[in-house]
Specification:
two-stranded antiparallel sheet, alpha/beta, 17 helices, globular
Length: about 550
């Protein structure tokens, strides 16, 4: 058992004791603000944000203009102050690159001849380089297992191989998930090394020309349809000085069926190599194939916007608690037949509506919070957490004066729960605050029911964590008060399969938002307590983020 896992188990036990001992401390002295958090207000705001007129809330679109105008108007009406001088917006310079699907090609050559694969159904590819065309010619293909270099786990999939100018093929997730061995990485719980973002970044550090991930639904935690929907159309990135030329020329995915064809062409046993890749004895394997890719792109530079309002503290206004949710989604895909709008009702009109409802509640709190509360609606989360990354790179409020960040991403539409999920339970002392607030609601906290999905690395709190700010992501519980756990899991599985990142994610007035109200009232209790205490919660011992926070706070002192 790893040190961090032992710490997490110890923290869970301590949290439960803490909640039982002092749950009454979690709530505000005045319940009026809690009563302002209602299902009616949530329904109304979700309906506005997820309406067809918002056109899927893509960054740098007409949908953004309408969304930002709505958020600014609501912050102003609530009496929040502008966070960026006299403005509620923080510009986020972006570059968008749209690949022409009719011109995207992937060809493989080998002793057995030439194979061509179809964009969309068999492979997805794009570039983060700011260029109008990409050509990768006959780059030798190398299977590099999970594509991980992790000294702390004594792991190096690139040992003894030079992949400069080559196409690397790798598996999604990490070896712990594949083996379910709790002593390998963190077992079933995905680490950052399992994330696709890390794998492409490492391939670039290794000098690869192209990097391809083999999709598997269980290991990725989403089906191929999500890959196709998420990486088609405009792909956004932050504007960097080198125009992203330090990245690999081409990034992409292949379906598992395509991967099996490739390995068969290479006269390699895919299943055997996949099993070997989960061991330290694995070594990168030449596939004796050459890959060629072409992409034709439309490049557009733009400035998107984070929307930020602040409720100044009455006693310590230079200390901040941040509530964050991403307002963006995937926009429109005019190549689709029928519905072309990715409304993003659950993901994340619910969270953005929740941010507004929370802001309204805090604005009504009596007594008012002693520390300042910042309400941060970020852009381009769906494009790689870009809005929150820009904020933590260019904070409007000092990070060493930021007490904590609390994230809301996809609220509960299923009804009241006996529990609340803490993604990354055991990571920080913020767990204590959640446990106490949950106890006040006669609920319990539980860890992520799907740790293999790597949710801690997939939403905006992660950018705050990376720079050291304690970050909390309280998610939907699974033990439904009236229907039980198996029913809730069925609903969540259905959402992943039928709605997640699809045009079908639309607002439904029949949603049962009682559970979302419970969760928002819990977050209010956590935020109100943080805003009125003088304490500075930290990361737990063993967390990979604690050193950054300790260094930050030591520098302040």
């Amino acid at each position: 058992m790893s040190r961090l896992v032992r710490v997490r188990l110890a923290v869970v036990s301590a949290v439960m004791w803490f909640a039982a001992a002092c749950g009454e401390q979690a709530g505000p002295p005045d319940g009026g603000a809690l009563a302002a958090i209602t299902t009616e207000d949530l329904h109304r705001r979700i309906g506005i944000l997820a309406a067809d007129s918002m056109e899927g809330r893509s960054p740098a679109s007409r949908g953004e203009e309408r969304t930002v105008a709505y958020l600014e108007r609501e912050f102003r009406t609530m009496g929040l102050e502008p966070a960026n001088g006299d403005s509620y917006v923080q510009g986020v310079p972006l570059v968008s690159i749209a690949t022409d699907p009719t011109a995207a090609t992937f060809t493989v050559r080998g002793d057995g001849g030439t194979s061509r694969f179809t964009y969309g159904s068999e492979f997805m590819a794009w570039t983060t380089r700011v260029v109008e065309s990409v050509r990768v010619d006959n780059a030798d293909m190398v299977f590099v297992g999970y594509g991980i270099v992790a000294p702390e786990y004594d792991w190096n999939d690139y040992a003894d191989v030079d992949v400069t100018g080559r196409t690397v093929v790798m598996l999604v997730n990490d070896p712990g998930f594949a083996t379910q061995d709790p002593n390998l990485f963190t077992g079933n719980a995905m680490t950052f090394y399992g994330r696709w973002t890390y794998k492409f970044e490492e391939a670039a550090r290794q000098g690869a020309a192209a990097a391809i991930i083999v999709h598997e639904t269980d290991a990725a935690s989403y089906p191929w349809a999500v890959v196709r929907g998420s990486w088609s159309g405009e792909q956004f990135d932050l504007v960097r000085a080198d125009s992203n030329m330090s990245r690999v020329a081409l990034e992409g995915w292949v379906s598992q069926e395509t991967a099996r064809v490739l390995f068969e062409r290479a006269r390699l046993d895919f299943d055997a190599l996949q099993e070997q890749a989960a061991t330290r004895e694995f070594r990168a394997t030449a596939m004796r194939l050459q890959a060629a890719f072409t992409l034709e792109n439309t490049v557009r530079r733009s400035t998107s916007r984070n929307v930020v309002g602040v409720l100044p503290g009455t006693e310590r206004p230079d200390e901040y608690v941040i509530c964050v949710a991403h307002w963006d989604h995937l926009g429109m895909d005019r190549s689709l037949d029928g519905d072309q709008i990715y409304n993003g009702a659950q993901d994340n009109a619910t969270g953005t509506a929740g941010l507004l409802v929370l802001a309204d509640a805090f604005a009504q709190a009596d007594p008012a919070p002693q520390r300042s509360i910042v309400f941060l609606a970020v852009t381009a989360e769906e494009q790689g957490l870009l809005g929150s990354a820009h904020y933590t790179d260019n904070p409007l409020f000092p990070l060493d004066r930021t007490v904590a960040a609390v994230n809301m991403d996809v609220l509960n539409v299923y009804g009241p729960m006996n529990d609340v999920t803490v993604i990354g339970l055991g990571q920080s002392e913020l767990d204590d605050y959640v446990a106490a607030a949950a106890e006040a609601q006669e609920r319990r906290i539980r860890p992520d029911p799907s740790p293999s999905a790597g949710s801690y690395y997939r939403s905006d709190h992660f950018n705050f964590a990376k720079v050291g700010v304690p970050a909390l992501y309280a998610d939907v519980g699974v033990d439904h008060v009236e229907r039980g756990e198996s029913w809730t899991r069925e609903q969540m599985d259905r959402y992943e399969a039928e709605y997640y990142h699809k045009p079908s994610d639309e607002y439904d007035p029949a949603w049962d938002l009682r559970g979302a109200v419970d969760d928002l009232q819990l977050i209010f209790r956590v935020g109100y307590r943080l805003a009125n205490e003088e304490t500075w919660p930290n990361w737990s011992e063993g967390s990979e983020f604690k050193a950054a926070r300790d260094s930050m706070m030591a520098g302040r002192e």
